[in-house]
Structure formats: C-alpha cells, structure tokens
Design goal:
alpha+beta; six-stranded mixed sheet
Length: 141
C-alpha cells in the first residue's frame, strides 16, 4: 500500500493521498484514499502461492463545487492514474505486475459513484488495482 501511495504522490495526479479512508471530509481538491479490498490466491508456482492483493484507489472530489468541471477533473485523473499504473506495472520492481488485463481474474476497472461525507456530496471513482506479488509463502509439506 505504501508503494501505491508513493506512486500516486510521485505522479502528482491528486493533491492529497493517504492510506485508509479520511476521518473527515476531504478538502475541496482532488483526493485519493488507498484501501485494501482483499487478498486472493488464484494459482500456485511450484511450492508457493501466487498472491493477488486487490487494492482500491478511491478518488474524491467535492461534487457541489462545479458539477461539470468536477466530472471532467475526476475522469481525467482516473485516466492518467490508470495509464501510469500500466506504464510502470511493476511499481519500480516492487511487485511482479499490476494485473491490468485480469490474468488472474478481475483486471483494473473503475466504478463511479457519489458519497455523502460530512454533509458534503463527493463524486467518487473507485479504481481497482490488482497487484500480483511474487510467491510470499511456502506450502508446508
């Protein structure tokens, strides 16, 4: 999760980014939260499992500021973030790959929505980011 956070900050596509949900409504700027959605073992390699960490990068933007501009800003940011994960799909060599096309199930995709947070409506985009990591555990004989 820290590697994804660093990746987002280096890109500069969002103003603020953090691990976990914000405790208070995000400021009136593009904000990202990195959330764990699950861990899967879709396959094995010799004596070790292939692990896929399913992360969600949730983008927030105050919907009431300017609906049209907010929609465009979030859409532009989502596209740029997805392109950046595709361009550096090993995240600097820290993982085997971002499973962009869904080799082990669900690939990268985006779910759009709205969220009422502290009496403020936010436009949200949840970017699924499945990370394939090298075998991290060994099966017991």
């Amino acid at each position: 999760m820290h590697v994804v956070l660093s990746h987002l900050k280096e890109q500069g596509k969002v103003k603020r980014a953090q691990i976990g949900e914000p405790k208070s409504p995000p400021l009136d700027e593009l904000t990202a939260a990195i959330l764990m959605d699950g861990i899967r073992t879709p396959s094995t390699v010799l004596d070790a499992p292939v692990l896929v960490y399913d992360l969600v990068v949730r983008i927030y933007r105050n919907f009431l500021d300017d609906g049209t501009e907010t929609e465009l800003e979030v859409a532009r940011s989502v596209g740029e973030i997805m392109e950046a994960f595709h361009a550096d799909f090993t995240l600097g060599g820290n993982i085997r790959a971002v499973d962009v096309a869904g080799t082990y199930g669900r690939g990268m995709d985006v779910t759009w929505g709205h969220l009422d947070f502290g009496n403020t409506i936010f436009r949200t985009a949840d970017i699924s980011v499945p990370l394939i990591v090298d075998p991290a555990a060994v099966f017991a004989p």
